[in-house]
Amino acid sequence: MSDAVTEPVARPESEGVIKLTMLLGGVVFLLMMIFGLIMRAAQGDLIYLDPTIFYQLLTAHGAGMVGSAALSGAAILWYFTARHVPLRTGIYIAFLGLFLLGVVLILGSIFIGGYGGAWTFLYPLPALSGGAWEAGAAVAFILGYLFIGVGFLLYYLELGIQIITRYGGLLRGLGWTYLFGGSDEDVPPPTIIAASSVLVFNTIGIVFGAAVIAASIINLLFPGFEVDPLIAKNAIYFFGHVFINATIYMAVTAVYELLPDYTGRKWKTTRLFVGAWFAVVVFVQAVYFHHTLQDVNMPAWTMAVGQIISYSSGVPLMGVTVFSLAVYIKGSGLKWDLPIALLVLGTVGWGIGVIPAIIDGMVAVNKILHNTMWVPGHFHTYLLLGEVAMAFGFAAWLVKDKTKEAMSGLDKLLLRAYIGGGAGFVLMFLWSGAASIPRRWAVHYEYWQLQSQLASLFALVVVLATLGLVISYARGLLRRN
Ligand code: HEM
Ligand SMILES: [Cu+2]
C-alpha cells in the first residue's frame, strides 16, 4: 500500500457493490419480516401453522435477520471507512461472496433439510432433532455460519491492515494512544475509532464462534466426540451477543458521517468519545454474562459481572451517542428528510431498546422474565427501530434526490407507519413478557393470544412500510443510473 495521505473521498470505488448489498439486505429484511408476521399470526391463532414449519421459520427469521443486520452494518462501515483509508473492493466482493455462500447453505439446511434448531444452534440441540432433521442438515446450517464467519474475518483483516498502515498502529486507530495522554495530532475521525473498536471485539467474538462451530460439526459427524455443554453455551452466547451488537456499532457510523451534512457541525473525536468507545470494547464483551444469569452451575462472580456491567454498558451509548446526537441537532436548523429521520430514529430506538435490556439484566428480574417474550421485546426495539432503521436511512441517503430537500408526503407516511407499527409491535412483545408468556412457543394458549393478535396487526403495518421503503430505494437506484 502506498504511504500517500488519503484525502477523504466522497464516493468510494465500492459504491456500486455497496448499493447492491443494501438492496439485498432490504429485500431479505422484508422477507424475514413476513416470516415474523406469519409466526406472530400463528401464535395469535389467526392462521394455522404446523409447529415444524414454525420452528423452521423461527430459525430462518433469527439467522436471516441477524445476517442481514450484519451485512447492512458491514456495508455501511465499509462505505464510510473508505472515506478515510483506501480499502480494496476485491476484498469486499470476496466477503460478499462468502456471505452469500453461507446464506445458500443456511437456507438449504432449513427449507430442504428441515433444520429448525434456532439461529443459536445451542449444543447439543442440533444433534437432537427428534427425527425432524438429519445430522447433515445441522452440519450444513453450521457450515453456513463458518463461511460467513470467514468472510467477516477477511473483512476485518482488510480494515485492520489499512487502518494500521494509515494511522501507524491499531492503538492509534482505536484512539487509545490519544486517550491515555498521547498527542492530539492526527487523531482518527469517529468512523475510524468505531471501525477499529468493532474489528477488535467482533474478531474475538467470531473466533469463539468458530471454535464452537468446529466442535459442533465434529460432534454431529462423530457423536462419540462430546463437548462440555456449559463451555459450548458460553462460547455460543458470547459470540451471538457480541455479533448482534456489532451490527449496530457498525451502522452507527452512518450517523457520525451523515449528520454533519445536515447540521453543518462536524462530529468530533473528543477524549470523551474515545473513552466511550474504549468502554464499549470492554463492556460489550463482559456483559454477555447476562445470558447466564439462570445457569446455576456458573460461578457466582459471573452473575455479579453480568448485572453490574448491564447497568454500566448503557452509559457510553446513551450518555455519549444519544446525548451528542441531541446536542449536535439542537439549534442547527436541521432540515428533516427521510434519510436523516431514519438515522435519528435508529439511534434513539437503539437507546430506548437498551432500557428493557438493562431491566432484564438484573438477576432478580431475570428470574421472572428469562425466556419470556420480554427478551424478543427488547432486542426487536434496538434492531427493528435501531439497526434496521439506520440501514434504511443509509440506503435512502445513497439514492437521495439532491434536487428535493423536504420530505414528500409518501416519505412521511412511510416513516410514521414504520415508527407507529414498530413501536406497537415491540410493546406487544414487552407486554407479553411482563405477562410471563414464554418465547419460542409455536402454539399459544387462548388467554395469551390477544397480544399476538394485536402484534400481528402492528407487524402488518411495519411490513407494508418496509415494502414501501424497499420499493422507493429500488426506484432511486433506477433513477440515478
Ligand atoms: C415486522 C417485523 C418483525 C416481526 C413481525 C418479527 C416477529 C418475530 C417473532 C414472532 C419472533 C418469535 C418470538 C418468539 O415466540 O420467541 C421473532 C424472533 C426473533 N426476531 Fe423478529 N420480527 C420482526 C423483525 C425483526 C428484526 C428487524 C430483527 C433483527 C434485525 C429480528 C430478529 C429476531 C430474532 C433474532 C429472533 C429470535 C429467534 C429465536 O428465538 O431463535 N426480528 N421475531
Ligand atoms: Cu446479550
Automatic annotation (TrEMBL):
InterPro entries documented for this protein: Cyt_c_oxase-like_su1_dom (IPR023616), Cyt_c_oxase-like_su1_sf (IPR036927), Cyt_C_Oxase_1 (IPR000883)
Keywords, alphabetical: Electron transport, Membrane, Respiratory chain, Transmembrane, Transmembrane helix, Transport
Residues annotated as signal peptide: none
Domain Cytochrome oxidase subunit I profile, first and last residues per copy: 20-481
Coiled-coil zones: none
Transmembrane segments: 20-41, 53-80, 92-115, 135-157, 199-222, 234-259, 271-288, 308-328, 340-359, 379-399, 413-434, 454-474
Gene3D superfamilies according to UniProt: Cytochrome c oxidase-like, subunit I domain
Transmembrane helix is among the record's keywords: yes
Matches recorded under PANTHER family: CYTOCHROME C OXIDASE SUBUNIT 1 (PTHR10422)
Name used for this protein in its record: Cbb3-type cytochrome c oxidase subunit I
Taxonomic source organism: Cognatishimia coralii
